[in-house]
Amino acid sequence: MKKWISLTVLSGVLVLSGCQSAYYGAMEKVGYHKRDIMVDRVQDAKESQEEAQQQFSSALAEMQALLAFDGGDLETAYNNAKDEYESAQAAADDVSNRIDKVESVAEALFDEWETEIQQISKASLRRNSTEKLTQTQRSYRSLVKSMRRAESKMPPILTAMKDNMLYLKHNLNAQAIGAIKGEFAILKTDISSLITEMNKSITESNQFIEAMESSSS
């Protein structure tokens, strides 16, 4: 049984890999190379981080409004905070998905680049291309490290938000709101740290995109 499952998983990986190869091949035929795809995916990842920043800030604002509740419709305030938490979760998932896609095309690009370097007969050109590859890989590793560092700050924040939402769901009253106010300062600090890390990643993304575009022009 385990062997069958392993073969099934392997087949799925091979199919996915084949689909990626076919996709890159089809795009290259219309003049859209892996380098272009990589630049676009870094841009998408950057934009997803910008969206996540906004969503986490909005979630924080709605939680603050809920904790500052003083009369009115308590359930509406709770639902607003819950909706923003769910939007923040979706934004975090999108960030992770976009980073995964950057890594996928980067692996394909670097593999192709290394293979094609070996096909260059002139030593000086081969050496120059190798240096550019090394430099691009170095910049790429720094970029992904920055992206993943910012990404890693989201799950703990989302967990804290979820805990608060679940607690309030079954104890929606002024006393329950008071009970979680002490955690708000920590959450606020964590979100501020997240936004700072994302700003660093966004800046590095812009620099990487600029370098990739200038080197291909």
From TrEMBL:
InterPro entries: DUF2959. It comes from the Bacteria. Keywords: Coiled coil, Signal. It comes from Shewanella intestini. Residues 1-22 form the signal peptide. Residues 35-105 form a coiled coil. This is DUF2959 family protein.
